[in-house]
Design brief:
- By secondary structure, this protein is mainly beta.
- The chain has one domain: Sandwich (Jelly Rolls).
- It is built from 1 helix and 10 strands.
- Strands 1, 2, 4, 7, 9 and 10 form a 6-stranded antiparallel sheet that branches. It has a 4-stranded antiparallel sheet with strand order 3-8-5-6, with no helix packed on it.
- The relative contact order is 0.34.
């Protein structure tokens, strides 16, 4: 019967109420802004880490907020010898490595091309600043007898999305 009594009472919003204690979770986790960038510019490497041409910058409204970074990066891999190779795409904040995605290629034929393997990186960062912060991707392949391409020939598009999350 207590349940029916609670249901029959109403809260008068014209009255003033005093609340004590702490409200937790209020306002945390809201998406405050979204920045998105794309590129179709061809990038190629056969050696050390090289910029893919994909980058975006965001300025947070509070240093306690976070940035959710989502990257979709198509990569084309070519090799002219029978070998095993690893290819990598990494996410950076400025010059700081944040995350790396790896693909292992076990190649035992004389020539191989894999078009548009999609690398995906999702990362929640705490840059602790209200200065403009730039995020970018780089890529590389192990071994010197192969090449990888980001946005090969300009026929595919890479995308980075930055979301400011209230922290």
């Amino acid at each position: 019967m207590a349940l029916s009594k609670i249901q029959s009472e109403s809260l008068n919003l014209a009255d003033n109420y005093d609340f004590t204690g702490t409200v937790t979770g209020a306002g945390v986790g809201k998406v405050l802004q979204v920045v998105q960038a794309t590129t179709s510019t061809n990038a190629q490497t056969g050696g050390p880490y090289t910029d893919t041409g994909l980058s975006a910058a965001i300025t947070l409204s509070s240093s306690s907020n976070k940035v959710l970074i989502m990257v979709t990066q198509p990569i084309t891999f070519t090799i002219s010898t029978a070998a095993a190779r690893d290819s990598y795409v990494k996410l950076l904040r400025g010059s700081t490595d944040l995350a790396t995605s790896k693909q292992q290629w076990d190649i035992y034929i004389g020539s191989f091309t894999a078009d548009n393997f999609i690398y995906s990186i999702n990362y929640l960062d705490s840059p602790n600043t209200t200065n403009a912060t730039t995020y970018k991707t780089q890529f590389m392949v192990s071994g010197g007898t192969c090449d990888i391409y980001a946005q090969k020939g300009g026929s595919s598009q890479s995308q980075i999305t930055l979301m400011e999350i209230e922290g």
